[in-house]
Amino acid sequence: MSAIDTSASAGFALSTRGLSRSFGSLVVARDIELNLPVGARYALIGPNGAGKTTLINLMTGMLAPNAGQIMLGGQDITDLSPQARVKLGLARTFQINSLFAHLNPLEAVTLAVCERRGISPRFWQNIAVNKDAIEEAYDILVRLKLGDCAYQPTRELPYGRQRLLEIALALATKPKVLLLDEPAAGVPQEESGDIFEVVASLSNDLTLLFIEHDMHVVFRFATHIIVLVGGAVFTEGSPAEIAADPGVREVYLGKRHHG
Amino acid sequence: MLPPIFGVLFDGIAYGMLLFVLSVGLSVTLGLMNFVNLAHCAFAMLGGYVTVTLVNIFGWPFLATLPISFIAAAVTSVVLERLLYRRLYRASDLDQVLLTIGLAFISVSVAAYIFGTIQQPIATPAALRGSIDFFGIGLGKYRLFLIAVALLVTLAMVIGLEYTRFGAQVRASVDNQRMARGLGIDVDWTFASTFALGSGLAGLGGSLAIEIVGLDPNFSFTYLVYVLIVVSVGGLGSIAGSFAAAMLIGISDIAGKYYVPELGAFLIYLVMVVVLMWKPAGLFGKR
Amino acid sequence: MANPTPLTPQGYLLARTDWHPLEIMFWLATLLPFLVFPNYLSLASQIAITALFALSLDIILGYAGVVSLGHAAFFGIGAYSAGLFSKFVWGEPFSGLLVAATLAGLFGYATSFIISRFRHLPLIMITLGLGLLAHEVANSAHWLTGGSDGFQGARTDPVFGLFRFDLYGKTAYAYSLGVLFIVFLCARRLIHSPFGLALRGIRENFNRMPAIGADSRAHIRKAYTIAAVIAGICGALLTQTTNSASLESISFQRSADVLVMLVLGGAGRLYGGLIGAAIFMIARDQFSGIAPQFWYFWIGVLLVAVVMFLPNGILGGLSAIVARWRRK
Amino acid sequence: MKRSIIAAAALLAAAALPNAAGAQGTVKIGVISAYSGQFADTAAQIDNGIKLYMKQHGDTVAGKKIEIIRKDTGGPNPDVAKRLAQELVVRDNVDILAGFTLTPEALGAASVATEAKKLMVDMNAATSIITERSPYIVRVSLTLPQIGETAGTWMATKGGAKKAYTMVSDFGPGIDAEGAFQRAFKAAGGEIIGSVRMPIANPDFSAFIQRAKDLNPESIFVFVPGGAQPAAIGKAFAERGLDPAKVKIMSTGEAVDEQAIKAMGDVSLGRLSAWHYDYNLKTKNNAAFVKAFNDEFKRNPDFFAVGGYDGMHLIYEALKKTGGKTDGDSLVAAAKGMKWESPRGPISIDPATRDIIQTVYIRRVEKVGGAIVNVDFDKVENVKDPTHK
Questions:
Q1: What is the predicted pLDDT for the residue at D247?
Q2: B111, burial (CB in 10 Å: exposed 0-12, middle 13-18, buried 19+)
Q3: Across the interface, do D241 and B131 touch by the CB < 8 Å criterion?
Q4: Considering only CA atoms, which of A219, A26, C260, C34 is closest in space to residue B95?
Q5: Has residue B257 been placed in a domain?
Q6: What is the model's pLDDT at position A253?
């Protein structure tokens, strides 16, 4: 286990202190301490039911912790609402698509941009006059290779495109820290590369934490890997360290077939 | 000698018991199937008309009609469940509300067509008329009977749901439908029979209600409001919750009228809004 | 929906706010009663008022996904406050509308803090409870509202000081239609605004909204207040065009009826409520002429049929047919 | 597309236009009532009264054919009633407005009667102020002060009670009845020891009755609207141990109507009431009326039915007097002071107020040959509404 100085959380984009949560006797997060440096590309791995998505839910405020703190850029955000955390720069995507079925990608991303810019309360204004917001939304779509289907209703998009739209929605909030919950879940192997190309091309200022099962992808894109088992951090380290760790092999790599 | 308020409270409890029998079925079906059945009181009305018809036209004794009204409401509800309701189990709350309001509208018109708009009189057996003196307060015999029936229903439901195989299947289906199917439980059948049970109880409640509140074609809507209040205050799917809520509504209605008559019918709505503000899922609600 | 000429994203969104020829025809058709049905103008006036009421419900139900079974509360507040204003202050109709809208809006804003805490079934119950509470308040305030005898003493001055509310309902229809059209323009702008987009977002996926930084509850509070303002205007219109107001204006029946109309026409389509209200009111007028006792039977059958076969209402069904026809 | 819409509209318009051709030889009567909803039975009985009268007297009077157009208000909706009245006048060209189950309906339509100068016959709505709202309104039913005052005076004098408690439903008719009873009772030397106004939608009365009982009154005056409540309050009296033999329970007729006392059974025996009609009344015309009504509709008539019946009588006789002239002024003039023998006894229209003058009977619920009925044992003749100026 690598030692990390937990007192200096101010230097990190996102960190947690003793984060715990249980449902009755079932502990889903136990005393989790994490530190994500600015611009990091971290992977969060672990067997099914290890509490990976729960951890993201705790960090983004969709689930309240029983104990512990969450710091975003040194600021304690533990008691803030999910939308307030988004406004401070903490965004996420969902493992299972959570999109706006009857909006098209342009509308959906424009919606997110409007929320960030604080113009969404304007009920008296034609949305089309907000040229900057719309063009910003369109640029995000183009960057994520969604430019050609911007006007197609979301529910009619191919699944891989919908996964990209998940990321586009998160990017529209201009996050400092982005938590990606299995961005390529359910996407055929050959397409998942595309998605991670997009992920890799994101700005270096952006701090990334992603959950992923495909070890090839993890080793290719992550600079650092955290292994979660039974709601607790089992170990963490560079890809090389994790690959060499016999304990990880045993608890995780050995039974990777769950998929 | 007991002070007169006890007599009034007794009436309130009996009224609460009636509300309980009328609403417990809706509470169970709502909790089990997450289905908003605003036509629930139409089944109660059906039970009421079955009793009235059997007593007044065929000369049956009142008590003998009670099981028949239960069965009639239960059977009708299963037919409707198979034909219509079943298709909307996964639909939105709104669609369910609209379908069942539609059925309630139809029930009002059909009842008016068959039985006329007249208020239906009913003769209860002599043994249930009058009152018993209890330390100086009169306890209506019919109300005692109502309380007894309601307690029996509660007992039967608690035993049925806690100690029988059917009860276990129902509880398993409520907790986790997918897992219940996996365990080989026929969830469709469980739904249909629970629905029949709930509607049958409504039918029984309708028959019991005639003596206290009367019966006319508007019954489907007049009592819907009270039933919905009991269900939402009590919490969906909770028998204990419905029981507690029915008592709370019955007693606060009565006590309010006795001590502050100016508040009138106000109080029960206030109780409902306050309870839901405090506990959105109702007193005993899980969600 | 493929566009032959590539539009800029802004141009695309701008084009969506264009008036469709059918829309223009629709509004031209609303003028027909003056020429073709001069004997039906008072019905037409009440249809216009009810249509506006359905539109106000559409904003919260069709766009924000908030089901309310107590929307008549605001209609009633508007109806009574317009009546009281005309009785005790003056009878000029437009200021009456303004007062009614303000009061209904204030009540809407106050209750929106309760409403926005709930979703789904508890929401239906709480709106029902609040609606019944409002009805009971109006009933017990007999000295102010006339209770179940109906409000007495409303008097409305001629519109612009020129047009008296006549027996044929000519002024009433022109006035109601005018207000309907102006409020409709505002509502149309609203749904094409950033706020309207946020409301659609809430309807489509309430749970995703916080994850894109949206405060859904604040949006719902605002939409609810706006809907209350419009409902208040409707109530005031009814009071002014009939010089009467009653408990019925604040009853559960009215809340249920408007929900039925909206869903019948098709929620979330702006015109659904208008068309639903027209069909409902005309059907009631016709059926109640034939067999007054049983007209709710047909409404019931219609509801069951719509839910079973036309889940998106009449407009939804029509647009599905048009879409299928175009694909061929 | 556009052309076809216009064509369709024109077709609809043609279908909807009033049938001008037949208008010459017909008198159209627009009946506005709450045919659906909570008060549907009231409207149905008024309608039965109308139908029976037309069956007995034919549908032609003064050389003109009578045509009835029914409109449903669905309940106490003044706005709907007003619109229906407007439509009946402008669309259907009716000559006379009639019906009116409920006060708000009558008040809603009153301004239309004034503006269109049409005779408006109130066949039921019983709040005193109605006839003051338009010079074209004539009432053939009753007013609650008429009944309440008679009940109050009788109770304090012949009834022999000095302390009374009043329980009324909290709406216009109830408040009218309460006021009249209290005024008359006090004027005749009695004392009102308490009163309560009960919500109109009220399923359980026991708490209100217990309040009354706590004060130990000699008499209780009750007004509740017809429907489910009379039986409910009657049973609640018995359950709370208020025996009509010891406490004189006086009410208006609704509280002891046929269905109510049937549902109450023996506990209704001894209940007193002041009312203007009952199927058991022994007047000159009543037996024949009750028989004809039963033959036609398989049920007994009630005061709603007699309101519809007498309303039609007034319309027929007025038309005969005017020789078929249907303008409101002639018809109202013809109706003023009209006297006739109704199933309820001799009645007349007060020429000053256009309101009904009739006999009010004091009745007691008794068992006659196994059946529970209201038996009249005292009466006050020629009672006017005491509140009209």
A1: 92
A2: buried
A3: yes
A4: C260
A5: yes
A6: 55
N-to-C CA span, chain D: 63
C120 at interface of B, judged by CB pairs closer than 8 A: yes
Are C132 and B229 in contact, with CB atoms under 8 Å apart? no
Residue among C140, B255, B267 at smallest CA distance from D175: C140
Q: Which amino acid is at C88?
A: F
As a whole number of angstroms, the distance between CA D86 and CA D93 comes to 10
Nearest to B265 by CA among A228, D211, D202, C8: D202
Full domain range(s) for residue B202: 4-278
Spell out which residues of chain C touch residue D107, defining contact as CB-CB under 8 Å.
149-150, 152, 244
Q: Which residues, numbered 206 to 225 in chain D, qualify as contacts with chain C under a Cβ-Cβ cut-off of 8 Å?
A: none
| Rounded-to-integer distance, Cα C83 and Cα C85, Å | 5
Lowest mean pLDDT among B131-145, C20-34, D323-337: B131-145
User: What are the structural domains, with CATH classification, of chain D?
Assistant: 2-141+285-354 (3.40.50.2300), 145-275+360-383 (3.40.50.2300)
Note which residues in 111-130 of chain A have CB less than 8 A from chain C. 111-112, 114-116, 119-128, 130
Which of B105, B118, B225, B227 best tests the C interface by mutation, with the highest count of C CBs <10 A? B105
Domain-located, residue B283: no
The structure tokens 């309906």 sit at D105
| Amino acid in the structure at residue C119 | R
pLDDT of residue B49: 95
Q: What is the mean pLDDT of chain C?
A: 89
Pair type for strands D339-342 and A177-181: unpaired
Higher pLDDT: A180 or B116? It is: A180
Beta-bridge partner residues of D99: D32, D122
CA–CA distance, C69 with C52 (Å, rounded to integer): 17
Q: Which residue has the higher pLDDT, C158 or D18?
A: C158
Fold designation for A1-89+175-259 = Rossmann fold (3.40.50)
Task: Tell whether the model's pLDDT for residue C116 goes beyond 50.
Answer: yes
Strand, coil or helix: D47? helix
Q: Which of D34, D31, D29 is nearest to D99 (CA)?
A: D31
Assess if residue B8 is contained within a domain: yes
User: Nearest by CB to C36, which of D9, D76, D127?
Assistant: D9
Total domains in chain B come to 1
Number of Cβ within 10 Å of residue D222's Cβ equals 32
Does a structural domain hold residue B13?
yes
Has residue C1 got a pLDDT over 70?
Answer: no
Alpha helices in D78-219 (DSSP H): 78-90, 103-116, 144-156, 172-187, 206-214
Closest CA to B170 of B186, B154, B156: B186
C-alpha B137/C-alpha B132 separation (Å) is 8
CA–CA distance, A105 with A154 (Å, rounded to integer): 6
Strands D96-99 vs A224-229: parallel, antiparallel or unpaired:
unpaired
Q: Does B267 touch chain C (CB under 8 A)?
A: no
Q: What is the DSSP letter of D137?
A: E
- The answer to whether D46 and D101 have CB atoms below 8 angstroms apart is yes
Q: Which CATH number goes with the domain that contains B179?
A: 1.10.3470
ipTM, 2 decimals? 0.81
CB neighbours of D11 closer than 8 A, spacing ≥ 6?
none
Give the residue carrying structure tokens 């009991």. Answer: B230
CB contact at 8 A, A93 and A167: yes
D78/C238 CB distance under 8 A: no
In this predicted model, what pLDDT tens digit does every residue of C161-216 receive, in sequence order? 888 888 888 999 999 999 999 999 999 999 999 999 999 999 999 989 999 999 99
Domain range summary for chain A, segments of one domain joined by +: 1-89+175-259, 99-174
- d(CA A130, CA D152) in angstroms, rounded, equals 75
Residues of chain A with pLDDT under 70: 1-10, 252-259
Please tell me whether residue A121 adopts helix, strand or coil conformation.
Answer: coil
For strands A12-23 and A67-72, give the pairing. Answer: antiparallel
